[in-house]
Write a structure and sequence with these properties.
- This protein is an all-alpha fold.
- It has helices spanning about 5-10, 20-50, 60-80, 85-90, 95-105, 105-130, 150-160, 165-195, 200-205, 225-250, 255-285, 295-310, 320-350, 365-390, 400-435.
- The relative contact order is 0.12.
């Protein structure tokens, strides 16, 4: 069976309920959010492990504590935001995704236990680091009128502890990093194997001799492509450390030496690992014959350009202002578009695109999705604004104008949620009691 026919036969006959171009756009956007948190996780773990070995250095202790906390939160959010691009992939690239999963089924099954084990190992180190290492910014309760004495007391509380995590803690952190990289390798295998429909039958039948139904085998792994995303994690985390220093700079209780050290470390990470990530990306394009594909190579060059602008936008002290963060996310967005262009190009070579799927447009589903998206944006906008204000100040928010603006944000998000619930339950009950 030729690959074009195979792709068509394996495609779901039910088609899609939304325009494929919209699903593609949402896939690129949500994968960019997902990989941003995964990059923060991987970069944070590498830096935390490096700093943990320098456990007699107070600045390294603070860096280890900050980095592992970032990794804990990043892994949680990365898993949550990874659901959306996974679902979009299953809708418009179901032939490739399910085939790749079948070919290496046991690896897919192992993914969830591996991530769970990684999280617990990382969290175990975080609990040890929180007790043993001081914080760059005190995390204790804030008061409305905090005094210098109160700041000193909070800092003393934060730095109390045995000041060491021991070999067992470092081993847990190392194990967590290895498992996270292993989980990433599994996802790389799934995504990469899905790009070769012309080889699926040979893989599954061992060249036409024996059926490989165990799901134990790995058929394709590209070291350059995998290295690109790992090295990009260290570049992204370098930007994050600089942003961390910029964000907490207004806090009077922040450790200035630690913030300067964080910014310097971040600047070096971005400067060293950014070029290595670019080299890995070009190696992938060259080895897979993609340099002559304008959409694929162009998307990657766009990611490189945005990454360079992010580095250029950092200030003289190595801190990252908001514009640099914006360029950093645009680089992640372009990297996501690069992956999509790669897959779209390879499937297009066999005359198969998502635009060929039968379209059964569901107006209610489409608009309900947009409504849900709007409610989510409203709540996230409120929470991000609140957290941003709260984190940059050692005191509670006392500005009346800021409090009023936050109140309006909350009223808007709450009103949208009530409207969403009315529509959701109202239409659901209408379908149940008044079926067409």
């Amino acid at each position: 069976m030729d690959p074009a026919t195979l792709l068509s036969v394996l495609r779901s006959p039910s088609g899609v309920g939304m325009y494929p171009a919209v699903i593609q756009l949402l896939y690129v956007l949500t994968w960019a959010v997902h990989i941003t948190f995964i990059h923060l996780t991987i970069g944070g773990l590498f830096v935390a492990l490096y700093a943990a070995f320098r456990r007699r250095d107070p600045l390294a202790q603070k860096l280890a504590r900050t980095s592992v906390k970032t990794a804990v939160v990043g892994l949680s959010l990365g898993v949550v935001f990874g659901v959306a691009p996974l679902l979009f992939t299953q809708v418009i690239y179901d032939s490739g995704w399910y085939t790749a999963n079948t070919l290496s089924a046991w690896w897919v099954i192992a993914f969830i236990p591996v991530v769970i084990a990684a999280y617990y190992l990382i969290y175990a180190f975080y609990l040890k680091a929180r007790r043993a290492f001081p914080a760059a910014v005190p995390e204790g309760a804030r008061t409305k009128a905090a005094s210098p004495a109160a700041f000193a007391e909070a800092a003393a509380t934060e730095t109390a502890g045995p000041r060491t995590v021991g070999g067992g803690g470092i081993a847990a952190l190392f194990g967590g990093l290895v498992l996270v990289l292993f989980a990433g390798a599994i996802m790389h295998i799934m995504a990469y194997q899905a790009l070769f429909p012309d080889r699926w039958i040979d893989w599954y039948t061992a060249g036409g001799t024996t059926m490989h139904t165990s799901g134990l085998f790995v058929y394709a792994f590209n070291a350059a492509r995998y290295a690109l995303f790992v090295l990009a994690a260290l570049f992204v985390y370098g930007l994050y450390l600089q942003a961390y220093a910029w964000y907490f700079a207004p806090r009077p209780d922040a450790d200035r030496d630690a913030l300067r050290a964080f910014a310097g470390t971040g600047r070096r990470l971005a400067a060293v690992f950014g070029p290595f990530a670019v080299l890995a990306g070009f190696a992938y394009l060259a080895l897979d014959g993609l340099l002559g594909r304008p959409a694929v190579a162009g998307a990657f060059l766009l990611a490189v350009a945005f990454g360079a602008l992010a580095v250029w936008s950092t200030d003289r002290d190595g801190k990252t202002p908001p514009r640099a963060l914006a360029f950093g996310f645009l680089a992640e967005l372009a990297l996501s578009a690069f992956r999509e262009a790669d897959r779209f190009n390879r499937y297009g070579a066999f005359g198969h695109t998502p635009y060929d799927y039968p379209l059964h447009l569901s107006p209610y589903g489409f608009f309900f999705f947009l409504g849900t998206f709007a409610v989510g944006i409203a709540f996230f906008a409120f929470l991000l604004r609140l957290l941003f204000r709260a984190g940059r100040s050692a005191d509670v928010v006392t500005d009346d104008q800021v409090a009023a603006a936050l109140g309006r944000n909350w009223q808007l998000s709450w009103g949208l949620l009530i409207a969403w619930l009315i529509v959701f339950w109202g239409l659901g009950l209408a379908v149940v009691f008044f079926p067409l």
